[in-house]
Structures are given as C-alpha cells and as structure tokens.
Amino acid sequence: MMETNQQNQSRGGITILDGGMGHELKLRGISDGTFVAGVLANEDQASTVEAIHFDYLSAGCDVITTNSFVAVPRRMVECGLADEPSAFHRAAMLIRSSADRARASIAKFENEKNIRQRKMIAGCVPPLTECYFGDQVPTIEEMVPEYVMIVSTLVDYCKVDIILCETLSTSREAIAIMHALSKTNSKQIPIWVNFTIKDDKPNELRSGDFLVDACSQIIKLTAALNLPLEAIGVNCSSPSAISKALPCISPLVKRSDIKLCAYGNCFQTTTQEWMASLKKEGDDDDAQNKASKEVRSAGDYDHNGYLLPEAYARYTHEWADLGVQIIGGCCGSRPQHMKQVVSMLKP
To answer: How many whole angstroms separate alpha carbon 221 and alpha carbon 229?
Structure first.
C-alpha cells in the first residue's frame, strides 16, 4: 500500500505526534522509570527504543520524538554520567544516539509496511533542570549556551524535521531557547513550543507565569528574531486542564499561520498532586483535592490508574474541535492511546 503525504494531510489536516517513551520503556522492563535510565536506553537497549518508535508509527503517528529528554549538560553532571568538562560532549552523544534510533525506526517502518508517506522526527528541547519546578530554572543568560549545544546537535548532526520545545514551566526557558535558535543554523526548521500548566489553574504555567503572557512573548519574540514558529500549545498536564487552557490561547493564533498543539498526561494522579506530595504542603490539601475531583472521572481509568485509550481519544476530539492541529500524547500515553486517537481524528 502506497500512501502520499498529501493524502494524509487531506484526512482532517491534523498532524499526529507520538506518545510517551519513558513509561513505555518501564512497562517493557527496560527502565526503572527515571528519565536517566530512559535516555541511556538509546545506547544500552537500542532495539527496544526503536521498537517503541516503530509501534507509534504503526499506530498512525506522523511524527516521532527523539528520546533525549534529559540529554542536557547539567543533568549529565547531576546524574554522574559526566564531569563538568565533558558534560556537553556526553549530552550531545546521547542526543545523536536518540536521533539514530528514531531514524532507524522510520527506515524499518517504510521497508516493512511499504508506505512512503513521509514520517518526521521532532528533536526534543527540554527543560535544563527538574521539570515542573520553576524556582530551579536558571537565568536566560545561563541557559543559552546549553540550549545552543542542544539545538545545534539536533539541527547539524541529527537533521531533525521539527524543533520540539516541551514541558516548559517558565516563559524564560522558552525565551532562552529562542535566543539559542537565533545563534544556530536552524532558521528554516519549524519550531513547536509547548508549556506545562497547573492542573487546577490552567491559565498558569507551573511556575505561576500566565500562559497567555508566555505564549504572547514567544509569538512576538520569534517574529522579531525571524524564527519559524509553526505551533504553540500545552503538554505534560491533565487532559481536562488542557481543554480549559486552549480557549485562552486560541485567540493569539487566530488569523495567523501558527497552529495550536496539545498532548496530555494519562495518569490518574495529576502532576499537581505529585508535586504537592513532594513538598508536603498540607495547606494546599483542599485545593489539590478539589482539583483532583475536577480533573478525574474514575470510569475513564483502568485499575492501575491509567487513562483508557478511548477516554484519551475523546479529549483529543475536544481539542480538535477547539482548532488544535497538532495532537499527541505525553507521560503515561502508549501506542494504544495514539492508535485510538488516529482512529477518532483520522477515520
């Protein structure tokens, strides 16, 4: 069966991004669930990483993401994978390895399925510190050199099709990435920028920055720097929070070529609850419980607390109705989720 990219685009005009990698590696017995184990799997368990990419492609995803979420210099040092002098090099090698895994998966998919529809690789540009905690994020000036290395590696060596900035909890992370991009050879590669929001206050980033302000800043900055911002949106948050956040930012892209992007988490325990448990802030219990009741419907989850594929697909249908053109899955989502999404959005 031969299928063209034009035929794919005619099916609703929605681009399907892949789902989570780290949790899938854990479920397949490869990782202990930590980001570090996940990124090392590019080298130690290459066949499994490629198999997961392949499964997302088989589910109907148009774009797969490099498995390089913590391949950043300071995390290399913190995790004992490199000393400071070699941290940049070690991170770059892991980024390269992640792109090799993705490209090998696409080649296998095209050969085995005899499909010539173009599949794309999104190069992950993540937070430089522990995600969700805005108070740990360095200054813009401190972040730019690390981001220059990351995007340069993704563009010059990995030849990715998309720069995917994701799970950003502060506006200054996005600003630093844009300034880094302006210093590289990446000015022709589409940029997607996604922020993570509070599950109980969807109009705020996890740092407390306002979502609308953050998106407005990036839209204006990319225009000033002449960078090709193709999409902006929300990821790594509860699906219901994303549904509430999208109407806040959709007016910002109206009458422009910028698309909306959304991909949510599939855990019954929200990130907000997890963060509260770490901080042990008893004063916030009432607010967290209220948020939990609001974002969860028990019938949508299995006995292990994972959102069912058909339930996740219903959320993505909401997002499509709100004008979202790029839809994927984040933490806890699996190939089964994305297959259901494809069935619903591209019947």
So the answer is: 10
| Three-state DSSP class for residue 257 | coil
Give residue-wise pLDDT tens across range 288-345.
444 444 445 668 999 999 999 999 999 999 999 999 999 999 999 999 999 999 999 9
Strand ranges of the sheet holding 326-329, from the earlier edge strand across to the other edge: 15-16, 326-329, 259-264, 229-235, 191-195, 162-168, 120-125, 63-65
Residue 162 bridge partners (DSSP): 122
What string of DSSP letters covers 216-247? Answer: HHHHHHHHHHT--EEEEEEESS-HHHHHHHHH
Asked if 221 contacts 178 with a C-beta cutoff of 8 angstroms, the reply is: yes
111 close to 57: Cβ distance less than 8 angstroms: no
| Helix or strand run (H / E) with residue 279 | helix 271-279
Can you read off the two tokens belonging to residue 264? 């949510």
